[in-house]
Design brief:
The complex is a heterodimer of chains A (187) and B (223). Chain A is an alpha+beta fold and 187 residues long. Helices cover 25% and strands 30% of the residues of chain A. Chain A has 6 helices and 10 strands; from the N terminus they run αααααββαββββββββ. In chain A, strand 4 and strand 5 form a beta hairpin. Helix content of chain B is 57%, strand content 6%. Chain B is built from 8 helices and 4 strands. A two-stranded antiparallel ribbon of chain B has the order 1-2. In chain B, strands 3-4 form a two-stranded antiparallel ribbon. In chain B, strand 1 and strand 2 form a beta hairpin. In chain B, helix 1 packs across helix 2, helix 2 packs across helix 4 and helix 3 crosses helix 4. Chain B starts with 16 loop residues before the first strand and ends with a strand. Classes of the chains: A alpha+beta (187), B mainly alpha (223). The interface between A and B is large, with 46 and 58 residues.
Chain lengths: 187, 223
């Protein structure tokens, strides 16, 4: 005889959620380990889960195998839906801020990119925000020219540059989101 | 050692390799399967083999949920397929790959109840205002199914002797004595307790590595 508790005794100890009901259990590390496991996984005596029919498994596995390259490396072209430089200004009003400051909004497939640019004495300063149902700012990288920018804790991208970018690109997993080419000739 | 093939090389587990660790020879396993998070990373990179491994890991769980709902055979097939389609289509939105089994159970349940409701509506004798009956899939049953699945995966990663011991001890339909189990494993019955402890320790390590058990307070991860 081993002296250890039987399976039924271990199960009962696990159900009782205490190791202090049995003198053997109090001093037997081996049985204590078994009781803990039985308490966490109360599936003793159950048969293993049956496998699905192979034909169903094959059909499900085929989902990834039939996916095209476009499914995995997807490029989304944004369209410009608002450009403050494209808005008509009041006749006769001279306002330098309208020229040194530009706001643009790009949209496509529930994705929205807002960019604000300010021309300083020596360089441009940019702030951008990208939103979309599947986009998490912490995992998005914004590419402007040669710069790769990561979002701050608020989900905003900040960067400066001596010249504004021709286009902005967003990378998220395999998804690439691109703006159309931008002209930076002052209005 | 981890190899990219992960579970596709699981058959190698039956072959123990003897290697040297310091001055003492030790028995090691050639393959450590990837956990769900690692596997999911490969799925996101478009690795069809990783997707297939993931399905192999959880196909029995999804199938169990779909069959427990009391669906017809075509609806079980539909429930199974739609659950995997939903996972694939939402693959970039899955925030916690370590909880993929919970995601699958929830999705399969939702899909099963939708199909049940549809079948009930099509049945002329059923009251059209009746709401879907979730009775066949109570949360306690789903939790047990998920635990069974997690334990089954971990058992598959144990060495053959430990796997056999745990199966004989805990999963045999009828309880067996220590002497009977020892005889079937060709061991002395007085060594069984210590071996059982070592095997359960290994099982616990695998469950922790797979993200199905909390190492510090020895609790299962919340479902």
């Amino acid at each position: 005889m081993s002296g250890h508790l039987s399976r039924q005794e271990l199960i009962e100890a696990a159900r009782a959620k205490t190791l202090k009901q049995n003198r053997h259990l109090e001093s037997c590390a081996e049985c204590q380990v078994a009781v803990r496991m039985l308490g966490l996984f109360p599936v003793q005596g159950l048969p293993p889960l049956p496998d699905a029919p192979p034909i169903l498994v094959e059909r499900a596995a085929g989902l990834a195998e039939t996916a095209t390259i476009l499914d995995n490396i997807k490029t989304v072209m944004l369209r410009l839906t608002f450009d403050s430089w494209g808005e008509p200004r009041l006749v006769g009003v001279r306002d330098q801020s309208a020229v040194s400051d530009r706001r643009c909004r790009f949209e496509a497939e529930n994705i929205r990119l807002d960019v604000r640019a300010e021309r300083g004495a020596r360089q441009w300063a940019f702030v951008a925000q990208v939103t979309g149902p599947q986009l998490r700012p912490s995992q998005v990288i914004l590419v402007a020219g040669r710069q790769e920018v990561q979002a701050d804790s608020s989900g905003l991208f900040h960067w400066t540059s001596t010249r504004p970018p021709d286009a902005v690109k967003i990378r998220f997993d395999e998804l690439i989101i691109v703006t159309p080419r931008l002209s930076w000739k002052s209005p | 050692m981890r190899i990219p093939g992960g579970e596709s090389m699981l058959s190698l587990q039956d072959d123990l390799t003897v290697c040297s660790s310091g001055s003492k020879p030790c028995r090691v396993y050639c393959v450590v399967p990837e956990n769900d998070t690692e596997l999911w990373g490969r799925v996101l990179s478009g690795d069809a083999a990783a997707w297939r491994l993931l399905i192999g890991r959880y196909q029995s769980l999804v199938y169990a949920v779909c069959t427990r709902a009391g669906l017809s055979a075509p609806d079980v097939a539909d429930c199974f397929q739609q659950t995997w389609v939903a996972l694939y289509e939402n693959r970039r939105r899955l925030r916690e790959p370590s909880r993929i089994s919970t995601w699958l159970v929830t999705t399969a349940k939702r899909e099963a109840l939708r199909l049940r409701h549809r079948a009930q509506r099509e049945d002329k004798e059923t009251d059209l205002t009746e709401t879907p009956d979730s009775a066949p899939l109570p949360d306690e049953v789903l939790e047990v199914l998920e635990r069974q699945s997690q334990l089954g995966i971990a058992l598959g990663e144990l060495d053959p002797r430990c796997r056999r011991l745990v199966e004989l001890f805990f999963f045999a339909p009828e309880e067996q004595t220590y002497e009977e189990i020892a005889a079937r494993l060709g061991l002395a019955s007085n060594s069984l307790g210590a071996l059982r402890r070592r095997c359960l320790d290994r099982l616990r390590e695998i469950l922790v590595r797979n993200g199905h058990m909390d190492e510090r307070n020895e609790t299962v991860k919340a479902l």
